[in-house]
Amino acid sequence: MTTQRQIPEDRIVYEETIPGGAMWSYVLKRHRSLRLTDVEGGANAGALFYNRDHLLDRLNLPDTLKAQHTAKLTAGHVLFSDLGRVLCSISADTCGWHDPLAGHSTAAMVQKKYGVSRFQERRNEFYRNARDQFLIELGKWGLGKPDLVANVNFFSRVTVDQEGKLKFEKENSPPGSYVDLRAEMNVLVVLNSCQHPMDPEPEYNPRPVRLTVWNSDPPAPDDLCRNSCPENQRGFILTEALFR
């Protein structure tokens, strides 16, 4: 976890708050940062990441976790691509734990848990699921089902017991929690604010997420994410070679 830090207003280039259950995508240019903020507490932001200049090179969560010897994501970690490059670095985090294990919800899961809710009757209040939201947003970039890879669930915490069972930990993210993602290449970010698939809340109640993009500084030689392990150092070397 990191201490609160303010973003200078003259560096902000884009800001928006998306409601619960919404979808969003954006090309985060190299060395710009995206801050995700849990406005009300208890939000979930499912996210996918792709190399915008070579879309076949995308987030590889198994390699991300294996290389950094972790089952959670927080400040100091990076998101590796299929080719061992660094897509984004988690440069700051006041939450402390983000879930890379539990995947995302589907239409069948949402219907079983919360009941039937169709657009025809409820209009924009109908129940949404993360898989459909991902696919709709991916379609805007010429991507589809074959491009749907394992996602990160920001603000959610899932632990694993000695028997290998997953447990969703409630109240992981209080109001105002945020995580900063610094792009180390030009990155297509695709996300939605649907509830976590393991969220035990009995009612359909996805929370809003604020999105802030700003011009951040390039990583310095002593950068925490670069130096947290040798694998990260190699990842940065591979990534920076693309821009020489």
Radius of gyration: 17 Å
Any idea what the shape is? globular
Query: How far is the N terminus from the C terminus?
Result: 33 Å
- Summed up, the helix count is 6
How many domains?
Answer: 1
Strand order of the largest sheet: 1-12-3-10-6-5
Determine the oligomeric state from the structure. single chain
Number of strands: 12
Largest sheet: 6 strands, antiparallel
Strand content: 25-35%
The helix-strand sequence is EEEEHEEHHHEEEEEEHH
| Mean pLDDT value | 96
Low-confidence stretches: none
Structural class: alpha+beta
- Helix fraction? 10-25%
Report on the structure:
By secondary structure, the chain is α+β, with helices and mostly antiparallel strands. It has one domain (about 10-244). It is about 20% helix and about 30% strand. The chain has six helices and twelve strands. The strands form three sheets. The protein has a six-stranded antiparallel beta sheet with strand order 1-12-3-10-6-5. The protein has a four-stranded antiparallel beta sheet with strand order 2-11-4-7, with helices on one face.
Quick take:
18% of the residues lie in helices and 28% in strands.
Q: How does the SSE layout of this entry go?
A:
Layout: E1 12-18, E2 23-28, E3 32-38, E4 45-51, H1 61-68, E5 78-80, E6 86-93, H2 107-114, H3 119-122, H4 130-139, E7 152-154, E8 157-160, E9 166-169, E10 178-183, E11 187-192, E12 209-215, H5 224-227, H6 230-240
Antiparallel strand pairs: 1-12, 2-11, 3-10, 3-12, 4-7, 4-11, 5-6, 6-10, 8-9
Annotation keywords:
four-stranded antiparallel sheet, 6 helices, alpha+beta, 244 residues
